[in-house]
Structure formats: structure tokens, C-alpha cells
Amino acid sequence: MNGESYDLLSELLRAVRLSGERVSAYGPLDTFSVGFSGIGTLHIIEEGEIVLRVDGAPQVERAGRGDVILLPRGDAHHVSDADGHASAAGGGGASGYDVPAPRPARWLCGTFTIGDPQASHLLASLPAVIVLRDARGPALEGLEVARRMILIEMQSPSQGSAVMVARILDLLFIQILRAWAADAGAEPNWLAGALDPRIGPALSAIHRDPGRQWSVEELARACCLSRSAFAARFAERVGKPPAAYLAHVRLDAAAELLRDTSLPAGSIGENVGYTSEVSAARSSSGTASRRLSGDEMHGQDARPRAERTYETARRLRCGPSRQ
């Protein structure tokens, strides 16, 4: 078994075709509300305080100078001033003390294009909002360097500045995800598992060869752990058992083959490891082809093609994965 680690983060960027787009400077502003939707977004707070709300969700994040907020999935959200919330928290009464007026908010906003958000479960499994508090500390020097480089390109644009900014945004996206996943308080996630030297080899093996009939015992051996210790550690760090994770990786691989090749559905099912009841998958290959070509739209089906492709890939699951 190849012992080299598999670069899951690079796979994510490639699969969903995520790339840095542009950076805009906001502020100084006293009262404001700015909406964002359909794009990955990064907010770097330079001064003052902002409040971020994800549309249709109860989540509210307050962020101040030095904080960095990443919305990797492109969830729609609004950024507004914090003054009204601060007044409400103070009770509205005179305290006898002079409270200094808060500084107007000023922040940088970088955006990312996400060409195919349904192409990888890795993106969908990330949280809607990732916040790094006081990201100017010594542990995150790379973020500060990238921020300064963006400011230089914005203040003194020259030939190639657009590409420079786009590449720096890609760098920031990777740095923020790494820092978030490495934090002890982060929720279980695939990147934390990939960074964990005890179970990282198993994730690398799964992604390198999703069509192999992996067993928990074999994956545990790759990590030099007992079956029980491996299964417990995997679920703790990744947030799901090995078999469930393998199923998601296979679906991603099947969706990519359905989208990018002319292979029949049955052959794709075999390629990604679904060998049981292959004849059933083959029988659905015509339906899969019609669905991908748009012949089976059931009227006005406005879902993205990638989403329909992913659903077709789900149909290739002809039987349970081996435990």
C-alpha cells in the first residue's frame, strides 16, 4: 500500500473548481447591511466590529479587529453593523460613565467562485461559517503575510494584480481551513482526519483507491491500530464511521465519471467498487444516460446538472459496503 498521504484539500479545490476571484474593501461604515450569496466569501476585519448572519439560520457571529470569517460553501449571508446590538446589550440606560464610541467598521471581503458545489461531499461537509479569532497571532503569521500582500496589490495595482489577488485568496482559503481543522475545538471533519497521523493513512488509502473492497480491518492495519481503536478514532475525528465515509467518496467518484465520461452506469458502479448486484446497476444505465442528457427532466427541473448527476450516482449503490 502506498504510504504517501493523499492531498484531500487539493482534491476539494479541483473537484468543485473553487478559485479566488476578487477582493473589495468596505468602510469605514457606521450603519450598514451588505448581502452575499452564491459565492464563497472571506471577511477579514480590519477595524471596528461586524455582525454576520447566515440567511435562514439562527447562527450569528460577531467579529472584531483581527478576526477572519470564511464561508467556504457559499451560504447566503448578511454583514451588518454592531452598534444596535451593543446598545440593546447595554440596557439603554445612563450608566454614569462615558463609553467611547465604537470605531466604524472596516473590512476586506474576498470572494471565490465555486464552479460545481455538488461535485464533492468534502465541501458540503464543511461548516457554513468558520471563524478564526485574532488571526494575527504568531501561530497564523501566514495569514497576516497574505493580508499584507493583498493590500499592496489593492493600493498599488499593476500588471498581473488580478491574478496575484486570485492566487492569494486561494492561499488564504487553504490556510484558514488548515488552521480551523487543527484547532482542538473544531467539530469532527474530514480534514482533521487527514491531518491526524494516526488515521490519515486510512483516508489517503480510501481516496487513492475508492473502488477497492476495503474492510475496517485492512484500513486499521494501514494505520497500525487495532480494529476497535481505529474505528473509534476515525469516528471521533471524521464524524462518521469508515464505511459511511467510503460510501461518500465512492459517490463522488461515480458522479465525476458520470459527468466527465460516456461510460454506462453499470461500468461506473464496478469502477467505484459497487460489485454486488451489478446487473441491477447495468439495467439502470439507460435511465442514467437519459437523465444526464436532459431527456428525463420531468418538466421544469431547475436543479443544477451537478446535483442531478450526484443523485444518479447514488443509484449506483447496489449493496452495502463491506465492514
UniProtKB/TrEMBL annotation:
Superkingdom to which the source organism belongs: Bacteria
Domain HTH araC/xylS-type residue range list: 200-276
Upper taxonomic lineage: Bacteria, Bacillati, Actinomycetota, Actinomycetes, Kitasatosporales
Biased composition (Basic and acidic residues): 292-314
Disordered: region residues: 277-323
InterPro entries the UniProt entry points to: AraC_lig, AraC_XylS_family_regulators, Homeodomain-like_sf, HTH-like, HTH_AraC
Protein name in UniProt: AraC family transcriptional regulator
Keyword terms of this UniProt record: DNA-binding, Transcription, Transcription regulation
Species of the source: Streptomyces sparsogenes DSM 40356
Compositionally skewed regions (Low complexity) per UniProt: 279-291
Molecular function via GO: DNA-binding transcription factor activity; sequence-specific DNA binding
